[in-house]
């Protein structure tokens, strides 16, 4: 047997991908303390806190409009399963936090969906969970978005803003045919 065959099986790690956006990120540099594009290990029993206070928060946002501790993420295993999840809790007394369409007040918490958008103030964070098996730690991988997340992503939880005409034919159908819609008298049909 080779040493490769005798080696212990590698354990996969749950990774939480977080993509951050703020309309003033270029001028105000509120994400300058975040470590982008490099995975970071977090012990499973730690609570990952996000906010303005760098002495308490693992992930600091340099903005006076952000609460000292804005929200936290806690890694856990669902009861009677081998599935690992995250719980998000709003720790801001002043700012409501929304996860997709669910609004969380102070100390409210919910399970984080596998793919969702977290919003507070002008901040938008796309969260995506990549499953793993490790019970000792999870990883975070932070990214910076160039454009607003709510406009560039089309998630099923977000309502469509496109009006549906009475005839059931979408205006985009005409545009894809190279024609523009024209108004005709119903008697001409």
General description of the model:
The longest helix is centred in the C-terminal third of the chain and has 6 residues, at 171-176. This protein has a domain at 15-144: Tumour Suppressor Smad4. By secondary structure, it is mostly beta strands. The protein is globular, with a radius of gyration of 22 Å. The model is unreliable at 152-164 (pLDDT under 50). It has four helices and twelve strands. Strand 10 (115-120) and strand 11 form a beta hairpin. Helices cover 10% and strands 33% of the residues. The strands form two sheets. The chain has a seven-stranded mixed sheet with strand order 2-12-1-11-10-7-8, with no helix packed on it. It has a five-stranded mixed sheet with strand order 4-3-5-6-9, with no helix packed on it. It comes from Platysteira castanea. This is TRAF-interacting protein with FHA domain-containing protein A. Belongs to the TIFA family. One of its GO terms (biological process) is positive regulation of canonical NF-kappaB signal transduction. One of its GO terms (cellular component) is cytoplasm.
Look at the structure and give the CATH class of the domain at 15-144.
Mainly Beta
Note the total helix count: 4
The strands making up the biggest β-sheet line up spatially as 2-12-1-11-10-7-8
Low-confidence stretches: 152-164
Instruction: Indicate the percent of residues in helices.
Output: under 10%
CATH topology of the domain at 15-144: Tumour Suppressor Smad4
The structural class is mainly beta
Shape: globular
The appropriate CATH architecture of the domain at 15-144 is Sandwich
Major sheet size, sense and barrel closure: 7 strands, mixed
Number of strands: 12
Through-space gap between termini = 80 Å
Order of helices and strands: HEHEEEEEEEEEEEHH
Tell me the β content. 25-35%
Q: Compute the gyration radius: what is it?
A: 22 Å
